[in-house]
Amino acid sequence: MIGYKLGDEHEELRKSVEAFARDVVAPVIGDLYEKGEFPYDIVAQLGRMGLFGLPVPEEYGGMGGDYLALCLALEELARVDSSVAITLEAAVGLGIMPLYRFGTEEQKRQWLPALCAGERLAAFGLTEPGGGTDVAGAMKTRARLEDGEWVIDGSKSFITNSGTSITAVVGVAAVTGTRPDGRPEISTILVPSGTPGFTVAPKYSKVGWSCSDTHELSFAGCRVPAANLLGERGRGYAQFLRTLDEGRVAIAALSTGLAQGCVDESLAYVRDRTAFGGPIGRFQALQFKIADMEVRAHNARLAWWHAAAKMAAGEPFKKEAAIAKLTASNAAMDNARDATQIFGGYGFMNEFAVGRFYRDAKILEIGEGTSEVQRMLIARELGLDA
Amino acid sequence: MTTLNIVVCVKQVPDTAVERTLTPEGTLDRESPDGLINELDEYAIEEGLKIAEAHGGEVTILSMGPAKAADSVRKALSMGADKAVHVLDDGLAGSDALATSAALAAALTRVGFDLVILGSESTDARTGVVPAMLAERLGVPQLTLAATVEVSGAGVTIHRLTEDGYAVVTGSLPAVVSVVEKINEPRYPTFKGIMAAKKKPVRTLTLADLAVDTGAVGLAGAATGIADWAARPPRTAGVVVKDEGDGGSQVAGFLAERKFI
Known about the structure:
- The complex is a heterodimer.
- Chain A is of the alpha+beta class.
- Helix content of chain A is about 50%, strand content about 15%.
- In chain A, strands 2-3-7-6 form a 4-stranded antiparallel sheet, covered by helices on one side. A 3-stranded mixed sheet of chain A has the order 1-4-5.
- Chain A is globular.
- Chain B is an alpha/beta fold.
- Chain B has one domain: HUPs (Rossmann fold, 3-Layer(aba) Sandwich), CATH 3.40.50.
- In chain B, α2 crosses α5 and α3 crosses α4.
């Protein structure tokens, strides 16, 4: 059976986050964005709303909801601002989910309650300065067991939520040996913030996502107990493949939100702005642009809903996740370009939301697997091998 | 200490962000626009929940309204209230403040209460008199326009908002308290709250259940009537202050006259 609308509970949540984004985020985000400040207040309120614990069972402090609920929240937040949305996305998708899925019972009990409450944040260190798409083959970070401790050396790039004052722990993917087939054995090790030998570089200056906290991390003889291994040794590669597949659906939802935000802002603007004796919304050139934007946002939403539905049903969703991420990030970029054009000179001003949307859209074609990677995955799923 | 029985009155109102229309009888069309919880009632719910959390107690939502008001009742439950009573009867349509207070007072008498909390006015009718009428009908103290509420023992103390500050008002329980938006920051429902709300009990009561005379409510029971109405005139141009050395004091005078400063 095909559903065309959300269930009551998910729709209630969506409306609740929509109201929060409009009433709480929208009035303050322009200023925070301009200053590049991490939105601590908003994060605390997202925490009280239970958004960080959406897909986690109540026994670990979560809401007992699901990944679809998280994605709905991300779409609604991103309609107003993507740096807030990506803070939630990374905190849950990359911070909480690996701990919840792969952590030992003790690790889950130790970390999840504060993370689900949004009081603390967890980050995931995967990408390195020399490895983006070739993340496993180029991984240089090493961890070795010595006297009951992991000793970690290496560095990680573009790590979201890794340097806030409430960051509690970073999951670090590291080469821990060589597999029988000669390829690197990769494991994930939990490194609490403030561990000696773990240095967080000053935050990056980014094109967009200005309120999101992103740093390069370095590890030099950084020692943590052997028990900080996340799940099993040698499972790091499988762990992050699963994490990335899910994350693509989340980024697709976030991208859909940005694409929808462009429609919302443009609609309001063309009804209000007048030129040549009336509102500019009467010009077909703009009507067609907005119609195209609506089509893209609509298709992006259908694509991520489909991927999320397959994921929820426990079916393989790799191809659908890649299609959703590719479709939605294209929609975000195209809509941001059209929306700024509709706004004319104001579209180039940071004080207008569409200006922020334009700066925030580009990363969506790069992060969580580039658009090229999505095409590669789709081709592979169709049986075309390299 | 005994458990406080807190009842929060919640009114569903049309979304103020959309165009509102009147019926041919001159009453507000409640069917077509989206219904929302009256904004000040959200503060009342929050205050009820906070008092229950601090002192131990149960929060019951009481709403009078058409069938679609059930959505607002459900939302109030998803914020954390324990149960709800929905007064639903076609005979209630067209009730003015006096008639509304008659039905609500009957329902409150039926369900029992230590503390009734409600918004000080609704965004649709804006009469602001229902809290006082309720207290009078119930024969309990009224503490209106509360910017803070403290419950201690058998009493309740509020800071009552006035034009130039606040007055400290104390009353004994049971009592009726109306709140203003300064009082708190209403919470957003969590997903857990939304799911739990589906399972919370909502009792529907009719006028017959409450033994309310149908002549006392609805258009029949209304003491006020709508004689005529007109659309609000378009906004006129504001006052332009030309600064000839006294601009600042002119602006200050303008604001003071309207009690902004």
